Amino acid sequence: MRASAIHIPGLAELTDQLVNGITLGMLYILVALGLNIILGLMGVINFSHGAFFMLGAYLMYQFNGTIGFWPAILASAVIVGVLGMAFESTLIRPLYKRIPEYTLLLTFGTALIFAQVVRKVWGDDAVRVDTPSYIPQSIDLGGLQFPFYKDVFLVLLTVVILAGVWLLLNKTNIGIIIRAGTRDAEMVKILGINMPLMFTLVFGMGSLLAGLAGALAAPIYSIQPNLASQWIVLTFVIVIVGGIGSFWGAIVGGLLIGILTSLMALIWPPAVEMTGYIIMGIILLVRPRGIFGVEGLFE
């Protein structure tokens, strides 16, 4: 069997794939940012995070036909966020004083349960959400046609969401506590902060971002139970590349892997699935704490 040849793309192809990579990177950022906040503050290796992304997509599919497109996106994100809060307070909180492997095994097991519940409720066949007819199919930018929802609206909305999260983390008391807790949770607790409540809120916020990303991705990608496993592994790769606990690390890592993966799909498709792991391997060799990671965060 002859090996696939490397394709030399033209400018138009490169531009199209670059835009696709930015769009993919924006979804990666939303999911990775939520996981990064949880991992950075709480030290919880949450393998159920990909399942929350999957649930957001399926809830969007379920609600779209009853309450409408935009309310369905909002409702899906909120429900997943509330589910995340309940998940943390009932299942994860009792394991905080145990070794991290307990939480890893718990969240891995619950991710499998979520996947089976989804199969029971919605089946194994892939489903898809259509965008409303009033949303333009494409838009002309500089003489090039781009899908409006995927390449324009989704990117702009993600930028707005990231700005809101940045303001929350940097300009509010809750954000100050979260950032301080990321560095030294015990000291924050000594100062009288209710850390169990803070952990629940943080886990809920991270889950909400994952559910929101899933709801926004529903009109773009086929929705099927394997989404959970596909996205959680790559999300951890992004967190490691960008740096655990880093806001800008999640953004840079998500964009870097999203763009390079998209370009690799054009240049050499057989290497697409390896792209993120290759980048992670290089980063771990050169800068083990990640691009924006803080050295000794978990020491």
UniProtKB/TrEMBL annotation:
GO CC, alphabetical: plasma membrane
Membrane topology, from the record: Multi-pass membrane protein
Subcellular location: Cell membrane
CDD domains: TM_PBP1_LivH_like
Superkingdom of the source species: Bacteria
Main location: membrane
InterPro entries associated with the record: ABC_transp_permease, BCAA_transport_permease
Alphabetized GO MF terms: transmembrane transporter activity
Segments traversing the membrane: 21-47, 67-87, 99-118, 152-169, 197-221, 227-244
One Pfam family recorded for the sequence: BPD_transp_2
GO biological process, one term: amino acid transport
Keywords, alphabetical: Amino-acid transport, Cell membrane, Membrane, Transmembrane, Transmembrane helix, Transport
The UniProt record lists the keyword Protease: no
Family: Belongs to the binding-protein-dependent transport system permease family. LivHM subfamily.
UniProt-recorded name of the protein: Branched-chain amino acid ABC transporter permease
The species this protein was found in: Vulcanimicrobium alpinum
